[in-house]
Amino acid sequence: MRTSSLPLLCCLAWSGMLVGCGSEAGDNTASSPLPVRFGAISLVLDGAFAPYLAERTAVAPDTVGGFPADVLCVSQVMRQEDKQAIAQAAALEFPFSGWVPTDLDSQPDDPRTQDGSVPALPTTPPCGTADLSTKADAVLDCIKAQCSTVPGSEEGRMSEGSCAVQKCTGSFSQLLFGNSDSKRCFSCLLYTGMSERIKDIRSACENDARAGFTFQGGNGLLILSRFPLSDVRAWVLPSTSWREILLSATLSPPGVSPVDVHCLTLQGPHSSATQPYTGVYANGATGDDAWFAESKLQAQRVVEHLSAQSGARPTVIWGDYYVGPDVTGEDGPPLTGVVPEAFSILAGAFREAVSQGYAPVCTTCGENPINGGRADLPGAWTAHVQTLNVPTDAVASTSRFGEDLIAHGDKPDTSPAQTIAIPVSPRYGLVSTIVLH
Fold first, then answer.
1. From CA 156, how far away is CA 18, in angstroms rounded?
2. What's the confidence (pLDDT) of residue 134?
3. Separation between Cα atoms, residue 92 and residue 257, nearest integer Å
4. pLDDT tier at 31 (50, 70, 90 boundaries)?
5. Between the CA of residue 326 and those of 217, 221, 320, what are the distances in Å?
6. CA distance 73 to 67
7. What's the CA angle centered on 65, arms 64 and 69, to 5 degrees?
8. Which domains does the chain have, with CATH numbers?
9. Fewer Cβ atoms within 10 A, N terminus or C terminus of the chain?
10. Is the dihedral of CA 150, 155, 159, 165 positive or negative?
11. How many CA atoms does the CB half-sphere of 283 hold within 13 Å?
12. Geometric angle at alpha carbon 193, from 128 and 75, rounded to 5°
């Protein structure tokens, strides 16, 4: 595991006192079965292209504490300060929390591609040549003039992704429609630009061979819990542009056996027309298939890793995976598969922890006001709770959460401006109650 050099941030509190991550988990003398609610949600607090980012970031810390769960896997909280704010605000309900920071130096614990080879990483900056730096400068000069949070200054950040799309398309297109080197430069500007100051985008993409990840290689995973957590650790997955990890811990509920818990998000799909794949883990696939291939590789590495290390211990794997199955709609509305081949890899190794008779519903939904608010738009089931070494009949209930309208924002592209009520995330969560022994 390549986490020994990573600083571990773990905020563990009990009865108002801070304790270390390695503290005693408490007395687990066998007693009555204990129902534990495992909830998973992506908050999508992930930069300039996230819808209603400011409005949702403001309410997220106070909202998360009210989620109907005992243990939460929260994803796409990219900034460390947002993780800290959520953990602190939710501490009365979830006194234990843990996450592991990553950065541009974080490398996959198992970097092999599907054919077993270990790919070479880039050794030159994405926009390092004279031609590419000139084109990159044109893009950043446009963003500085048209879309900077500090008008006309490189000290600002890209105000909104939509601004750059609308006002700087001509500059971007020189890179987006170029060769593979041009696309890599484009991707660096795009993903670094989701979070960094304009001057830092320029410096990174023109000088740093590691550049091209969002949030300087940070990941978005956070575990919140009512019960003690120990051995909080990260297993870094092979990934491009978004740093993906498996965030793991030992959960120690009172009176039952400890449980291995693994919070997970995969790469998921991207449109190669606007987000070209520039990574090294697609095993020869191109276009949209390249992103799909990386998601499948990540799923396979998770299965191999957990199969090798879980033994007979009760294990819960959960999160908004950003992938999900096709659902025909026999017991509910049809749901569109999202990289279903990647989900099938996970489903072949782990049991879906839903209650008997549960009819799947969308968690990524067109009916969500942030996504259009229309029930006729397609939906997908991407938030999951899965288990290993847990009896089939241990799941007592399953339901969706995160639907409450708790903020307001101006709907884009409406004149006059139309204010709508919105939930905390464009993606709903899923919670399953598992009876532990």
1. 37
2. 97
3. 24
4. low
5. 31, 26, 16
6. 11
7. 90
8. 37-113+215-436 (3.60.10.10), 130-208 (no CATH)
9. N
10. positive
11. 16
12. 125
pTM surpassing 0.85? yes
CB distance 233 to 4 below 8 Å: no
C-beta of residue 398 within 8 angstroms of C-beta of residue 432: yes
Distance CA 106, CA 217 (A): 7
Q: Which helix (H) or strand (E) holds 359?
A: none
Q: What six digits make up the tokens of 347? A: 């489903």
User: Which residue, 93, 101, 96, 80, is CA-closest to 21?
Assistant: 96
Instruction: Note the pLDDT of residue 310.
Output: 81
CA distances from 330 to 35, 208, 365, 428 (A): 29, 52, 18, 22
Pairing type for strands 9-14 and 96-99 reads antiparallel
Q: The tokens of 382 are what? A: 């991407």
Say what angle helices 288-309 and 340-347 make with each other, to 10 degrees. Answer: 10
Angle at the Cα of 71 (from 69 to 74), degrees rounded to 5? Answer: 95
Q: Model confidence over 288-347: pLDDT tens digits?
A: 999 999 999 999 999 999 999 888 999 999 999 999 999 987 777 789 999 999 999 999
- The 3-class secondary structure across 28-60, one letter per residue, is CCCCCCEEEEEEEEEEEECCCCCCCHHHHHHHH
pLDDT digits (tens, 9 = 90+) for 206-247: 999 999 999 999 999 999 999 999 999 999 999 999 999 999
Answer whether 101's CB lies under 8 Å from 6's CB.
yes
Q: What is the dihedral of CA 388, 394, 397, 400, to 10 degrees?
A: -10
Q: Are 437 and 254 in contact (CB under 8 A)?
A: no
Cα–Cα dist 125/113, whole Å: 23
Q: Count other Cβ atoms within 10 Å, centred on residue 230.
A: 19
With a CB cutoff of 8 Å and minimum separation 6, the contacts of 103 are 6, 216, 217, 218
Element (H, E) at 295: helix 288-309
DSSP of 176-226: HTS-HHHHHHHHHHHHHTTTSBHHHHHHHHHH-TT--SGGGG----EEEES
Which residue in this structure is represented by tokens 């971007």? 172
